[in-house]
Amino acid sequence: MFTIILITILVVVIGFLWYDIGSDYVYMTERSHGMKLIKQRINDSWQALADEHNLIFLGGGFFKKVTLHGSYRQYYLNLELKKRTEHKQKLFSTYLTISSTQANSQKNTHQPSSQTKPVVIKDIVRFFNKPSLKFSLKAPLQIAENQQIITYNYNGVNSEKRYLQFLFDLMVDLLNLYPEIIEQEGDIVAGLLTMLNDDTHGLQLIAANLLENIANRTAPRLKDKTTPLICPMCLAHCIPHKIIKTVSKATVKVAIKDVSMLKVTHYGCRLCYQSKNFVEGQLVVVLDHTMQAERLEENNQLRINWFKHKNPFDFDVVEIKQASDEDVERFVVQIKNDTDPGRKEHYKTTTYIIALDCQLNHNTHRILERTFINN
Ligand SMILES: [Zn+2]
After folding, report:
1. pLDDT at 122 > cutoff 70
2. Residues whose Cβ atom is located within 5 A of ion ligand 1
3. Is the pTM of the predicted complex or chain greater than 0.85?
4. Which residue, of 167, 183, 199, is where some domain finishes?
């Protein structure tokens, strides 16, 4: 009886194992032809890249590690084909890292590639503009280790030589330009915000990292300024811009709530985000027909001649010196029609001063009182 039970158990176990191995075998056989083709393509393109750039290619078939590594444009490049099994399926991912730290230790063993080219700041522009990239990125790029390593991890096989070449150069250019890009500070924030809010942009994580670095540079310098800062180009104040980007829990499957990608405060011009060029003091709009200049900087004030400038801006004080009732009325109508939401709020705390020798009628006084605060 015991023997019968034992034999039954053995038959069940062997049957189960046979089924398991068999299904895997069938799967592998079905795909073996396709795999051979992929393997051939990797061999051809990765080997060609190795030959072209003096890199080392190790192609050991699908059950051994497939790598391409070495010094590329004075950085250390490591491209790997990684294999994993999910639901009995063999899945592959292409993992590429380019780092400046390891390049130093490799310098003696690998010659720098002849592809080295000088990088200029205008190259930055092409990183912001997705259509100008030669290829669309199949996976996002990520930067780590104090901007020393840039990584790319694609769930699939990248065997196209031209695409890989483009990736290598894009990643090296980014590492090369990184300090210069951060140095641009507020000037590039608008472009980075566009990238950050585009969930299909392969450089979204790079944009998040750059914005964090830029914000961290502006905060210590501009956060605790006691006098107002004015952007002389936009005639707008320097304000804290809260930049928040979350990734929905639907995208990050393991998360139980939305995950924060970025939460920083950038200090810069309210309108153009620039963070380097400011005038300290009050911004005054002057209604004075005797004023010749369009703008004057004096006594911690940036004074703007309304009759020459003629457009609303973020003024803190209205100063009426030589102006008629009609001038003031036209000015107030233009201010009331201003659609900028930031300025609409700002006008509620704006004060006005009327020169003693400026004769305005009762109605004009009432219009001013209803619009600004009498100082
Ligand atoms: Zn500005």
Report:
1. no
2. 231, 233-234, 269, 271-272
3. no
4. 183
